[in-house]
Write a structure and sequence with these properties.
Length: 157
Amino acid sequence: MLKQLGYFIEIIRGGIITTRHFSVNMFFHILNLFHIKTKRKGAVTIQYPEVRQKIAERHRSLHRLMKREDGKPRCVVCMLCATVCPSECIFIEAEEDPDPEIQKYPARFIIDISRCCFCGFCVEACPEDALRMDTDEIELADYDRDNLVYNLEKLLK
Ligand code: SF4
Ligand code: SF4
């Protein structure tokens, strides 16, 4: 009997919480309807994926490697990004560049996005502005982990 009473109390409690949220949201929506400005806005349900929220201008999305004018990667393999990365998800292999001005270029540049925490430290650390996180690509979920390993070819796109 006590168990049943406990269930009943929880149902009533849930109902009160739902009604409270509904009433508060409705109140703010009505104020909005009459153009009364308030600090708080009523909650809105976004019909994702048909409707998408605007991404903040300073967002961090999927990485991309920048190119020089001749199409080569701007990266000079200084390894700062790989060193600073807290998730240790950047792997770079250097090759000697015939151009003495450049010295090194990345023969392999891999970012394992499945381990990345999108902190942006790699972008901040890069002295060449060779790495950016401004692709607007934020829907990166995949059923296959291998698809989340981005190589030089994918990052230079
Ligand atoms: S965003 Fe952060 S975790 Fe991701 S690769 Fe860059 S430094 Fe590593
Ligand atoms: S910090 Fe920049 S230049 Fe250095 S290895 Fe990373 S991407 Fe290349």
